[in-house]
Amino acid sequence: MxxxxxxxxxxxxxxxxxAAALPPHAALAFEGGLGxxxxxxxxxxxxGLGYKGRVTSPTYTIVNEYRGGQVPVxxxxxxxxxxxxxxWDLGFEDYLTGEDGVxxxxxxxxxxxxxxxxxxxxxxxxxPDNENWRVIQIxxxxxx
Length: 144
Description:
The protein is of the alpha/beta class. Helix content is 24%, strand content 28%. It has a single domain (15-124), classed as P-loop containing nucleotide triphosphate hydrolases (Rossmann fold, 3-Layer(aba) Sandwich). A seven-stranded mixed beta sheet has the order 1-7-6-2-5-4-3, with helices on one face. The longest helix is centred in the first third of the chain and has 12 residues, at 8-19.
């Protein structure tokens, strides 16, 4: 499915809508350049799962855990990882299987080999007619 987002709040709203369609142990593979809205989308998704706290990019911590909603959300940023093995070294398998949580991986193309089969793919890119708009493609989540 392809969506056009005209603002950060629309991107967050789409993330919130996707949250309702996710199965247990879902993994989401995010792709998109700097500033494309990956964290904004994640913020909406996490809020859609009932978390009320602050949601930030895990660029320097590599993983943020959001607990207190319906299910925990584990938010990874693979930008600084050099290979999929580094993701596994962080305990990625435990995050995928240990709890009924959701794993969100920004810059997933850097660790593509580590992404589980059936991952929901979310691609964010600039709109050709307006650099402030985003084209968001979602594959694998069913109809929203």
